Amino acid sequence: MTLRLLVADSPAERDAARDAEGRVFLAAFGNTPEVMEQEYGSYADRSRFVTVIDDSDGSALGAARLIVPDDTGEVKTLADVAGEPWQLSVPDSLRAAGLAGRPVWDVATLAVDRRHPSGVAGAEVSLALCHGLFRHSQAGGAQGLVTILDDRVLRLLRVMGVPWAPMAGATSEYYLGSPASTPCVCLVDAIAGSVRPDLAPAVVGGIFRSIASDPADLLPGRGAA
Q: Is residue 105 domain-resident?
């Protein structure tokens, strides 16, 4: 098994990433393919997939969907938090986070397929996705990241030291099958100094025992639909 971290660029890589995303969100939250298309289909041309690919069969062991903003700065998370159940003021939320007028990208989904092998390779998939999100966003000029995280995932990421914080005024609410999810924001430049020291070589440095990571595979320009 040869595992690689990359931003999905070819049609086969993108299909593998979407397949992993779909499997995980169906199993975890009951999100059917129809729901996924309804929620994310209109963002297909602005989606970039950070993924861990198994070169032995072309499958993805995990994937994270980044949505880049349009000319107005709109991304899915910011559109969703402005509506029910949160009804947050997006300008106020970004201003409170120090991101008013700054480029903000959306970590729209984060999916690790629990069918992947246990052991070192399995444990490193989540770390690899975090590294890929960090480096691709940083290289692309994003200064902030937004997301709506299931609270269990949020707790895990905060234990790792990834500095996701609830948006100003945000509460934990039901969202797309998750019984408890919270809108969050993260400053890209804060990630490197916040990650736990024992995890920093992986999350910040991209050093893994069982996953190949080439910085060129995370550069801007990859992954455009």
A: yes
Q: Has residue 223 been placed in a domain? A: no
Q: What is the pLDDT of residues 35-57, one digit of tens each?
A: 999 999 999 999 999 999 999 99
Task: Look at the chain and report how many structural domains it folds into.
Answer: 1
Asked if residue 192 belongs to a domain, the reply is: yes
Per the CB < 8 A criterion, the answer to whether 69 and 104 are in contact is yes
Q: Are 127 and 203 in contact (CB under 8 A)?
A: yes
CATH number at residue 64: 3.40.630.30
Taking only the tens place, the pLDDT of each residue in 177-209 is: 999 999 999 999 999 999 999 999 999 999 999
Q: Does 85 sit behind a cis peptide bond, omega within 30 degrees of 0 on the bond before it?
A: yes
